[in-house]
Every structure is written in structure tokens, then in C-alpha cells.
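Record passed on here:
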Amino acid sequence: MARYRGPKTKIARRFNEPIFGPSKALTKKAYPPGQHGRGRRKKQSEYAVQLMEKQKAKYTYGVLEKQFSNLFDKASRKTGITGEILLQLLETRLDNTVFRLGISPTRRAARQFVLHKHITVNGQIVNIASFAVKIGDVIAVREKSKSLEVVTNSVAATATKRFPWLDWAPSELKGKLISLPIREDIPENIQEQLIVELYSK
């Protein structure tokens, strides 16, 4: 299954944000990568700013161009604020939901966790990272996988970090999507309106 396999630190430094999780490089080198990273950077065009925002969203959620374009098309056909609906679609992907529940420490780890059949949805094993979780769906760690060290460590590390659209039962290692997230509750530093403007050109 296709996914970004390039250098993670370089991408994080480009946006000056921990796109793929905490990175020491951001504190050591707080400037963009490349030989001109420290130099004076020319003012970016409106298109460049919008494109950068789309790229940031893609890298943050681990989605490739075609998938992202399809999600935007789906969001634009729904009634409501297109940018917020786009983020809701990204947030309710199965890999992201596993990450938000605290079952895995990063989205990349969550993706692998799903692909390796450690996750069930409503009692059935689902190994498709892009699976769209719906309100009422119960996401759980497969019984055989509950003792994995990566799971116990991640759950312990994120014990106090919970999200209002997800219900979590730590003793059973399962959660439930109880509502769609509203924009104010999504912590990602993404200006979704710029993405909407880019696709509207």
C-alpha cells in the first residue's frame, strides 16, 4: 500500500512543526532544510502558501495526493463548511482514530498496527488504514494483541490525553466514536480554508 517513505526530519523542518511526532531536529535547527535554509527567504505567493498548507495536511495525516483529492471532493459534496468536513474525514480514518485513542504513539505506528490486523471495528478485524469510522463504531485492540508492549506503553503515555468525540475504556482497550469532531477540538495547526481556496482555483 502506497505511503510516504522519504525523510521525516526534512519535512518537519520545512514546516517547522513535529509533523511525524516529536523531533530533536526542530530545536537544534529551527530553520528550513537546504543550503539556503538560514538565508533570507523571499515572500511566498498566495498559491505557494495554499499549496504548503495542503502539503502539511497530507503529511500530518499520512495521506497521498490522490487520496487527499478524493477526500476533498467528498467533503465539497457535503452540506456544511468544506474545510471542517475535510478535517472530520481525515480525523475519522481508522489509522488516525487508533492514534487519537492512544493505542499507538504515532499515526505511522497506528497505520502499521491496522495493517497487521491488530485492530477490530465492531468486533471484526479491519486492516484498511483509510477505513472510514462512523458514529457508533467501536474500535478495539484484538484480544491476541492486548499484551503487546507497544500498546501498553502508548496507552500509559497518553492516559490523560483524551478527545471529546471519542469514548475510551482503558481496561478493555477499546473506544467508540460518539460524535464527529468540531474544529475547535481538533488540535492540528492546519488552516483548512487555504486548502479550500487552493482547490477552488
Q: What stands out?
A: The radius of gyration is 18 Å.
